[in-house]
């Protein structure tokens, strides 16, 4: 074995150790939060840390899910808003991405650059005009005020456009020869090939809208309409020193995201890698 091979093995080993250590450091707070949610208040700050409680207590989760303000109502609000928004984002972004990547029309590149440039506009600047508009339309204090702005995504359009650009143009030519319309070509031929990009967009969009705090804070006034981030903030304010209950509420709010990423991880990595290949 040559010196170069030994050096490569040593470098790879060192990098593996470093990144493993960084991974442990990053996941440790979540593991502590999960452990603390099953403890009594008197056990939470024991030193050294008792990562696995001797006795598992579910009192904190009962308080979160069956207490004064049960979380299942806020869970349903977040699920409804997030799923409708993500579905709309996938539809509009995939259609716009296909048009910008595969259709030829006058001013396509200029229009795409203008659309892409809107990403530099801070969302906070649009809050006041959006509030005035939704107030005129009587949409304030409704879930529609949160769902409608999220149906369109500049980042989603960019990701889908980049992925559609990697597909060979021969697919469109062959489908045109077979008599397929543009919409049928998009729906039945090109869209199934963009699964990694769709999954990447799904995870990014779901994470963003599931954790969105600013929009619901501005537009929702009734407690029964609150989403999970708002409910979690109120719960923390009401249970300032009840750390086990706060940890249980935090674990409950993160669980859907963890399941989603774990289930779609392979396609997510592939989609992120592919979105910057060409364009």
Automatic annotation (TrEMBL):
Domain ABC transmembrane type-1: from-to ranges: 75-264
Transmembrane residue ranges: 12-32, 79-100, 112-132, 144-164, 185-210, 243-264
Record localization: Cell membrane
Pfam families documented for this protein: BPD_transp_1 (PF00528)
InterPro entries xrefs: MetI-like, MetI-like_sf
Keywords: Cell membrane, Membrane, Transmembrane, Transmembrane helix, Transport
Membrane topology: Multi-pass membrane protein
Stretch forming the signal peptide: none
Family to which the UniProt record says this protein belongs: Belongs to the binding-protein-dependent transport system permease family.
Name of this protein: Carbohydrate ABC transporter permease
Organism of derivation: Paenibacillus violae
